[in-house]
Amino acid sequence: MNTNNKSVFWAIPFIFVGIVWFLKNMGIVTYSLFSILISWQVLLIYVGLFNLLSKRFWAGLITTAIGVVFILPEIGWSSSNWLHVYWPLIFVIIGVFQLFKPQRRPNTNFHQKHFQRNFQKHWKEEANTYSNTDYSSQDGFVISYNTFGSVQQIVLDPVFKGADIRNTCGGTVLDLRRTKLEAAQTFIDVECTFGGIEIYLPAEWNLQSQVNTVIGGCDDKRYHSSAETDQEHVLIIRGKVTFGGIEFKN
């Protein structure tokens, strides 16, 4: 892809975002559709297509696959539970393609073969080294560290005292519907990169977000019934989301 085509390719997202944002302000595009079209998942798919057109097959395939898998629950084509359980199968599929893809012609450059072998070895070592999940709840405080994995945790402590959640290229689900708040302010610190976090909590909890997002989102999707919001206790979410998303549900 030459320089002019690259300029056009990267100009399209800015034009697209501007048009969709304008249509949302005019009331033509709904908020739910806007949150799907302008999302980190769509950006990943777009970057993946760019890599494929630039003949970077594996980078394009991996990026596109991650974007597609994580956007399926948003458009209602799969449940979030399915996503958190089965999305690691992407790595299995990529590995199968790697094993059975057509071999290069005999005149392939030696350095390219050497690089491919080293890359495959490095990828396996990195996957084994960095795949990790560690989560616990002690005296009402939750710690959840998830890298290339899936975590589903239900807090059964009588009082919820806060959480520290770090999620990288994975899916984390935290269920707070069986506990309660006691302090005037309770904090959940999050750091999410290329992944998704779902937090289930009662509709009457007073939720405040102080999350900084970079090509990501933090959405309160709870169904608010007739129950009055608790004004004595506040749950504050703070931290950073990069190419990821946080959703609050009940």
TrEMBL record:
A family per Pfam: LiaF-like_C
Keywords of this entry: Membrane, Transmembrane, Transmembrane helix
UniProt entry tagged with the keyword Phosphoprotein: no
Residues in Cell wall-active antibiotics response LiaF-like C-terminal domain copies: 160-219
Record's protein name: Cell wall-active antibiotics response 4TMS YvqF
Record-annotated LiaF transmembrane domain positions: 9-105
InterPro entries membership: LiaF-like_C, LiaF_TM
Organism: Parabacteroides chinchillae
Chain segments annotated as transmembrane: 7-23, 29-50, 57-77, 83-100
